[in-house]
Amino acid sequence: MAEAAPNSDHQNTPTSSDFSATLLSKTKQNLIFRSKWAELNGAMGDLGTYIPIILALTLSRNLNLGTTLIFTGAYNIITGALYGVPMPVQPMKSIAAAAISSPDFGVPEIMAAGICTGGILLVLGVTGLMKLVYKLIPLSIVRGIQLAQGLNFAMTAVKYVRKEQNFAKSKSAGNRDWLGLDGLVLAIVCFCFIVVVNGAGEDVTSGRNEVDENRVGNENRRKTTSSRVVRVLTSLPSAFMIFVLGVILAFVRDPHVADHFKFGPSTFSVVHISKEAWKNGFIKGTIPQLPLSILNSVVAVCKLSYDLFPDKDCSATSVSITVGLMNLVGTWFGAMPC
């Protein structure tokens, strides 16, 4: 009598334990730091856009800075562990612009807008509609968004260098002096330092030159010395060094700034959102923010991640769900939507 064949469908069905093991293995792989200084240097990348927006909202709308920093840090750790690629966890800029420009758009409206945006992104991800959007959006549109944002960031950086900034009003406050601890000369020197360090490139023949150093002529010895200098320059964490220098100079300019420090996390409290806040948050915040979040925070991020890290799994569905869940958690406690 023939024995019944085992159910192949049942055997091939992944179990929860298999999923957990795969996720754990993937997380461990993503948390391997191949170059600690390079990772630390890259961590400075988002601060140029993150700090001005958060400071402006903190000064003008009493945003809970401590809660925002805690949740943003957690978001970065989670996305880094899950995806293994640099994920831009940035404040939702349309919501931030509405809050800064509208006196009646306060913290409850900001959180309502973030919750609505996060909920819609979660629904789009769970239902698979985000995957459809990802396929329908032409690559030219994504590249246009990336180019426009890059130019916008560059112009904003130039404005911050040339003009003194009043972050409470999100306006420029006059021309910056040439000399001084916050002058244009120092900014130009720092800019040139970053260009020299990051623009030095890599010499792929440096290892071979070192091996053959004893049997090459004077010309090759000079090349070896030059390659060593290049290697040292490219290993410097230039952005981190500039950031540390800025912190030191801030204390030098105003030593009493430390007197205003309060150590310890902020007290967590649930934000009360009225019906009017829900309405204003959705109309003034969610509606203009949603296209930007879909195109930039999900579609553009996934396409760029595929370009730079083709071996990493960064699908539009998972990113949409992740962004949605993050904003459905932190915003209830006053963290800036991202």
UniProtKB/TrEMBL annotation:
Q: Which residues cross the membrane?
A: 63-85, 110-134, 179-200, 229-252
Q: Which UniProt keywords apply?
A: Membrane, Transmembrane, Transmembrane helix
The protein, known as: Molybdate transporter 1
Taxonomic lineage of the native organism: Eukaryota, Viridiplantae, Streptophyta, Embryophyta, Tracheophyta
What InterPro entries does UniProt report for this protein, alphabetically? MOT1/MOT2 (IPR031563)
Example of a GO MF term: molybdate ion transmembrane transporter activity
